[in-house]
Amino acid sequence: MWSFEKCPICGGELEDKQVERILKGGSNTAILKVKAEVCLHCGERLYRPETVAHFEEVIEKLSTEDVGDFEPVGRTYQVA
User: How much is the pTM?
Assistant: First the structure.
């Protein structure tokens, strides 16, 4: 059960949705698909505490380049 009935930012209605979250750690980036409560008015996303803890674990792995269990997708380039 989520702890909010309405959006804490604007008071709008919340809906359970699958969303993408981009995380960065060091020079590495990961894309995760997770569940979140999303405000239908302002777009604010509310994540469960265990999801936030997972974000922190992924960021730590990205920072230390412990990415052996991550699936590589594409490449990123910096253009001067």
Answer: 0.83
DSSP label of 13: B
Which tens digits make up the pLDDT trace of 28-58?
Answer: 999 999 999 999 999 999 999 999 999 999 9
> In 3D, which of 78, 18, 19, 30 has the Cα closest to residue 57?
30
